[in-house]
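Record type: ASSEMBLY
Status: queued
Input:
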Amino acid sequence: MARTPTTSDAFNAVAEPQRRRIIDLLALGERSVNDIVEALDMRQPQVSKHLGVLREVGLVNVRDEGRRRLYSLNSEALRPIYEWVTPYERFWRERYERLEELLDRLQRQTSGDEPEQ
Amino acid sequence: MARTPTTSDAFNAVAEPQRRRIIDLLALGERSVNDIVEALDMRQPQVSKHLGVLREVGLVNVRDEGRRRLYSLNSEALRPIYEWVTPYERFWRERYERLEELLDRLQRQTSGDEPEQ
DNA sequence: CTGACATATTCCCATATAGGAATATAATAT
DNA sequence: ATATTATATTCCTATATGGGAATATGTCAG
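Status: finished
Output:
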C-alpha cells in the first residue's frame, strides 16, 4: 500500500505546511484564490490544488462571487485533530508543574544559607 | 518535489493512523515492540518501521532492557500540533455559544404562549 | 464576439511512502 | 557453540504526491 492519501482526512491534509499557511490565512476571513496567491507568494495552480485538497476533506467552503471564488475556513473540520492532541497536553503541563515545584523547593532550600555571587 | 516526508515533523509522522495508535498505546506507559505488536495486532516489521519514524521526529524514546527495547512516549514533540490547532478551538466554541444563546432566546420566547403537545 | 482576468485541470517527474516477505542483527539461555 | 527470542533492515511494488509548465474553463467588460 502507499502512504495515506492527503485527502483521506484532516490529519493528512494539514500535514503539508503550505496548506497550514492557507488555513492560517483563511482564519482571518474569506479570501479569493488570488488573494491567497499574493499573500502567501505561491503560484496560482498550486494554490488551487491545495484548496482542492482542503475542500475534499471539508476544511474549506467555497462561494462564487462573479468570476472570483471566495474560500473560507471550516474550522469544525480541525476538531478531530484538536480532540486527538489535547489529552496529551496534560503530560507536558504536569511535567512543567513538577519542575516549578522543584525549583520552588530548591529556592527555599538555598535562600539564606548560600552566599550570593 | 514529492510529498513532505513522514520524518520531516510531528504533523507528518502523526498523519498515519497506525502511528497514532502506537502513540495512544504508549501514552499508557512504556512498551516493547512485541507488546505493541500484540496489543495493536500488527506485524512486527511494520511496528519497527513506524517506531523508526516516530523516533526520528522525537516522538518516542528508546531504552534497552536485555534483548527487548522499551519505547516510551515523548509527548513534548506533540506540542507544535497542539499549539497550531488550539487557537482554532475558539471558532467552533463561539459558534456553539451563539447557538446556545439562540436556543435560550427561543425557549424564553415560546414558553407560556405556546400550547404544549 | 473578443479580450482580459480568475480559477481549475492536465501532463510530467522525482521522490517517498506502507505493507508484505524474507532476512539480518542482537541478546539470552542451555 | 547453538537454539531461541526480540528487533531491525532490506528488497519489492503499487500508489500518490507537490511543484513546474502549459493549457483549459469560466466569467465579465466593452
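Annotation: The mean pLDDT of chain B is 91.
Annotation: Chain B is about 55% helix and 10% strand.
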